[in-house]
Every structure is written in C-alpha cells, then in structure tokens.
Design a protein that fits this description.
single chain; 339 residues; alpha/beta; four-stranded antiparallel sheet; 16 strands; 30% helix; 18% strand; binds flavin mononucleotide
C-alpha cells in the first residue's frame, strides 16, 4: 500500500487518510513574511515542561516499547499509556476494529494487563527510555479507579494521571461516568484524593454539553482536561446483516472526528481559558496539531495516525517547527496568538 510503513499494528488506511497524509506539509507563509529563526517548541503542562506539545494518545502506542524501534521516544513531549485497570481485563469479543471513511471504529474494551504489570514492566522500561509518562487509568467502579490511582502514587516518571472516565459505571445502570455531570464530579473527587501529580479528566464527546461536564470535573479537583475520547458509532456487514464489531458499537477515531474535537477544545477553552487541555481527535499532520493549539490546547495527542505511520509524532513536531521558523514565530504561545 502506497506510503505505508510497517508498524506494531498497521491497519489499512482509507483513500482520504492517504490524501491527508500527502497534504501533511503546512502551507508556505504569505510573501514577505518569511523570517527564519530559532524555535522553542516547549510547553508547560500541569507544571511540567515538555520539549514539544506533541504526545501520544492512550491506547494507540502500546507501551511505547514497540514504537521505540522507529525513533527515540524522547523526541515526544510525553507518552500516554494504554488505560490500566486494577486487574487485567480481557477486552471485548472480536472483531474489534473496522475501517471506516477517514477513520476507524474500535471496540477493544480496554484490554490491558493491569496496574501491577504496568508498574513492574512498562513503567520501568519507559523510565529507562527517559520519556515523561502520562498514566491513563480506568475502572468500572469508583473504588476501582481509586485503588489504581493509589497504586500509582509516587510512581517515577509519571508527570500526570489521565482518568479515562468514558467507562461504564457499574454502580449506576452502566451509564458512562463522563456522560453525566454528577457521576463525573463524584469519580474525579474520589480520584483527586489519591493523586499527587496533576489530574486530567478525559472526557467523552458523546454528550449534549461537554462544557458542563468539563465544569463538573474542574470543580471536583481535575487540574486539566483531555479532549476528546472517541465518538460512538456502528458499522454493519451487509453480507451477514450483523454488526461489524464484536462489541456491536464502537468508538470512531481518526480524521473523521477532527472537527468535533476542535469544536470541543475550542468551546471548553473559551469557558475555562486557564485550564490546560490535551487536545486530540484525528490529528494526522502539523496543520492539524497547529489547529488544535489555536483552538486552545496546551498539548496535542496523536492516536490513530500512529497506526498509519508510527513516526507521526516526530514528523508533526518537525512540521510545526518549520511552520513556525518560516513565519518567524519563536514559541508556542506566540503561535497561538498569531491565530
Ligand atoms: C485502538 C484504540 C484504542 C484506544 N484505547 C484507549 C484507551 O485505552 N484509553 C483512552 O483513554 N482512550 C483510548 N483510545 C482513544 C484515543 O486515546 C483518542 O482519544 C481517540 O482515538 C481520538 O484520537 P485519534 O483520532 O487521534 O485516535 C483508543 C483509541 C483507539 C483507536
């Protein structure tokens, strides 16, 4: 397949994704504006300085070990690890992924090896790779979230906890924590008490008002927000008439959801301008990352694009650097103001 590289989990990309990849180079500056100069890409996220705003998104990067075959992970701002739970989770029945126009649907079901495995193996390896770690946690009950957060207390190299609250709340009719302001407030307040690093609440776009849910998370102690998780969708195999995913519905990701993500980041940033946001959803190239920063994100996470090109993160960083240097933009704050 043209433009494809082999990766840890390479999937077929759509024609539109290929098209977007080919257009990865941001536009040249208008005549007369080009002034090359040194560029500082560093950003401060929750009190920690990252060398670039580009980080990996949870669930799309393995533990980082596989990707380290392609480049030195220190070239990323941070690695966000797959959401971990108290005990290992087996995940949902197969098939778990299906390609859709400009994106993919997944119903992995948070398969992971549990927090103890993370601490013993993945984190040790990430520490040896000297890359800052954002630890994503998940659970089906408040108690499970709290116990995972507690196990991560003092974990070396973990610069932030990202609470993936897009999980079914087994204590309340299986409705997702992040789909309800009260449930969001309850879970974030409980986790906050266990966490000594900045706590980011990862929110679902599948709500009427993401600003209302963001407000509930912030009022309950979240210091930052990760926006957005996947958009709920479904595909049907017309030969069998059955759902294409074993889990029936799944999460849509990739370029198809980017305008939804940009809108969510923009709206939440307008409502809470001082709150750090990790923006994500369909970011594939430097143009998309710059757009996300201009919408109000402090850092930008890259997910599905890694399946097409494992080097997406560093290529995006290089593209941003060129965009800024060409326009004489010296730092990320100035880039955002230039919008
Ligand atoms: C295969 C796959 C697995 C994912 N697993 C997780 C996960 O474990 N925890 C989480 O918070 N988000 C998970 N996500 C959501 C991504 O982190 C991200 O929020 C979403 O895919 C939008 O970004 P993207 O379009 O760049 O992929 C997963 C996404 C995909 C495609």
């Amino acid at each position: 397949m043209s433009g494809m590289r082999s990766g840890p989990a390479v999937h077929q990309e759509t024609e539109t994704v290929r098209q977007i990849d080919r257009n990865a180079e941001p536009p040249s500056p208008p005549e007369g504006r080009a002034r090359r100069g040194p560029v500082d890409l560093s950003v401060v996220l929750g009190g920690v300085t990252l060398r670039t705003p580009i980080v990996s998104a949870s669930g799309c990067f393995g533990s980082g070990r596989e990707i380290s075959e392609f480049f030195d992970l220190r070239q990323l701002g941070a690695v966000t690890v797959k959401s971990m739970t108290l005990e290992p989770w087996q995940g949902k029945p197969t098939p778990r992924m299906v390609e859709t126009p400009s994106g993919m649907l997944n119903a992995i079901g948070l398969q992971n090896k549990g927090v103890e495995y993370f601490l013993q193996y993945d984190l040790r390896w990430l520490n040896s790779a000297k890359v800052p770690v954002i630890a994503s946690i998940a659970g089906n009950t408040k108690d499970e979230f709290v116990r995972v957060a507690d196990r991560l207390r003092g974990a070396p190299g973990v610069i932030a906890i990202e609470a993936n609250i897009s999980c079914p709340n087994l204590e309340d009719r299986d409705s997702m924590f992040s789909h309800d302001a009260k449930a969001t407030a309850g879970i974030i307040a409980a986790i906050r008490r266990q966490v000594e690093v900045p706590l980011f609440a990862k929110l679902s776009p599948n709500v009427t008002s993401i600003t209302e849910i963001a407000g509930a998370a912030l009022d309950s102690g979240a210091q930052g927000l990760s926006l957005i998780n996947t958009v709920v969708g479904m595909a049907i195999d017309i030969e069998t008439g059955r759902p294409a995913l074993g889990g029936v519905t799944g999460g849509l990701s990739g370029p198809a959801i980017r305008p939804i993500a940009v809108r969510a980041v923009y709206e939440v940033h307008q409502a809470f301008p001082d709150v750090p946001i990790i923006g994500m959803g369909g970011v594939t190239n430097a143009h998309d990352a710059i757009e996300m920063l201009m919408a109000g994100a402090t850092a930008v996470a890259v997910g599905t694009a890694n399946f097409v090109n494992p080097e997406s993160g560093i290529e995006i960083t290089a593209g941003m650097e060129k965009f800024m240097a060409d326009r004489g933009i010296r730092n990320v704050a100035q880039l955002k103001r230039s919008a």
